């Protein structure tokens, strides 16, 4: 309205030429102002679109980043809702985008630990367990990135069980070493070069020597168990017949010396090759022969045989006529440091590790030890390759 009144006054008091010039400049200014205000009015819309694009790019980068991890990783917003997660989290917990993490991981132990983190963000690494159904153990590691929380869920069940087994094994080893060590100390104190005869002193020295070798054997077998549990699997090809024959040749004189008849039929093992970790099958077979030798009395028999089966397997069987194992103990004979009833005790020279080593070596190579026994009649151990 002001511009229109100004133009009327110009037209009244000035000549047409001046009025035309003023109108031209007014039109030019109007066009420029129109363009300016259009740009200004469109600016917020473009900024919003830019922010949306940046958020989409950031989300994609986050997903790409966490997808490289093999354990579940969840990204939370400032309200502890799941913003995005990797494929492993999808597999374990399902798609839970925009849900609270405590409604996704609903284990009581995790929720209580996470509540502590919410109150104190320095409490960002904690262990938690899931008792049912498989008694699993986990570690949560939570890190801050801009306005997000990165939550790593790492299963530690294997490490936890390994540590517990190590502690149990160390306790058992200490206990097992005490007995021969006490005997050695006792006989060392008994030896009297001045007051006892050479024959008596030699008897005590022989006992000390025997117990020393027993301790060495115990330590060697414990180290072997530890090696089996920690070393990776690297298999080589083995000639079955040669391995069986070598071990049987080494043990045949021991069976003969004890008065045990060793019946051998391993012809089915000829030209059979199989993959197994280096030198370990010889340990398996020798331990089974040693077991039969220890628990079979003189005058009895031990049978070693191989048989080909119809499903492309070969069976190795060691059957003894020894003291046997009670049904109550049968399921525990492959447990470390376990020895069955009074008849199968440390007096036989065993530590309760031989069958544990056999079982673990076979399992590591994908095979299983099968066994049966009747107390007072004997035992049968069988491997299917």
Walk me through the structure.
This protein is 53% helix and 19% strand. The protein has helices spanning 2-13, 16-66, 87-93, 101-104, 108-119, 157-190, 198-230, 240-258, 280-295, 327-330, 354-364, and strands at 73-76, 82-85, 125-130, 136-145, 148-155, 236-239, 261-265, 273-276, 301-308, 314-320, 369-374, 378-384. The chain starts with a helix and ends with a strand. Mean pLDDT is 81; it is low at 342-347.
Q: Helical content, roughly?
A: 40-55%
Q: What is the approximate shape?
A: elongated
Radius of gyration based on Cα positions: 41 Å
Strand line-up in the sheet with most strands: 2-1-5-4-3
Q: What is the oligomer described by this structure?
A: single chain
The fraction of residues assigned to DSSP E strands is 15-25%
- The parts where pLDDT drops under 50 for at least 5 residues are 342-347
Supply the helix-strand structural class. Answer: alpha+beta
Total number of beta strands = 12
Write the layout of secondary structure elements.
Elements: H1 2-13, H2 16-66, E1 73-76, E2 82-85, H3 87-93, H4 101-104, H5 108-119, E3 125-130, E4 136-145, E5 148-155, H6 157-190, H7 198-230, E6 236-239, H8 240-258, E7 261-265, E8 273-276, H9 280-295, E9 301-308, E10 314-320, H10 327-330, H11 354-364, E11 369-374, E12 378-384
Parallel strand pairs: 7-9
Antiparallel strand pairs: 1-2, 1-5, 3-4, 4-5, 6-8, 9-10, 10-12, 11-12
């Amino acid at each position: 309205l002001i511009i229109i009144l100004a133009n009327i006054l110009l037209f009244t008091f000035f000549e047409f030429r001046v009025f035309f010039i003023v109108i031209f400049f007014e039109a030019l200014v109007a066009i420029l102002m129109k363009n300016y205000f259009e740009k200004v009015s469109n600016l917020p819309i473009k900024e919003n679109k830019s922010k949306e694009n940046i958020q989409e790019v950031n989300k994609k980068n986050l997903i790409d980043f966490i997808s490289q991890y093999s354990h579940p990783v969840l990204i939370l917003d400032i309200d502890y809702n799941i913003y995005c997660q990797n494929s492993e989290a999808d597999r374990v917990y399902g798609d839970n985008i925009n849900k609270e993490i405590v409604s996704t991981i609903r284990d009581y132990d995790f929720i209580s630990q996470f509540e502590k983190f919410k109150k104190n963000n320095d409490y960002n690494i904690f262990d938690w367990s899931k008792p049912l159904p498989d008694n699993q153990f986990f570690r949560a590691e939570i890190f801050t990135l801009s306005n997000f929380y990165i939550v790593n869920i790492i299963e530690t069940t294997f490490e936890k069980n390994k540590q517990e087994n190590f502690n149990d094994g160390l306790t058992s080893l200490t206990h097992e070493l005490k007995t021969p060590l006490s005997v050695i100390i006792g006989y060392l104190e008994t030896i009297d070069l001045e007051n006892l005869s050479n024959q008596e002193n030699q008897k005590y020295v022989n006992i000390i020597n025997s117990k020393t070798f027993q301790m060495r054997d115990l330590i060697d077998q414990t180290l072997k168990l530890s090696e089996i549990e920690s070393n990776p699997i690297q298999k080589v090809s083995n000639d079955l017949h040669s391995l069986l024959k070598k071990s049987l040749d080494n043990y045949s004189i021991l069976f003969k010396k004890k008065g045990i008849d060793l019946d051998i039929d391993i012809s089915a093992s000829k030209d059979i090759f199989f993959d197994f970790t280096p030198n370990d099958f010889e340990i398996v077979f020798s331990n089974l022969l040693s077991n039969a030798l220890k628990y079979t009395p003189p005058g009895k028999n031990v049978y070693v045989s191989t048989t080909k089966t119809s499903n492309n397997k070969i069976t190795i069987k060691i059957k003894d006529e020894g003291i046997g194992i009670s049904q109550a103990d049968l399921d525990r004979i492959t447990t470390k440091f376990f020895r069955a009833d009074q008849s199968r005790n440390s007096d036989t020279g065993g530590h309760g590790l031989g069958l544990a080593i056999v079982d673990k070596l076979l399992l590591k190579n994908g095979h299983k030890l099968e066994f049966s026994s009747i107390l007072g009649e004997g035992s049968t151990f069988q491997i299917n390759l």
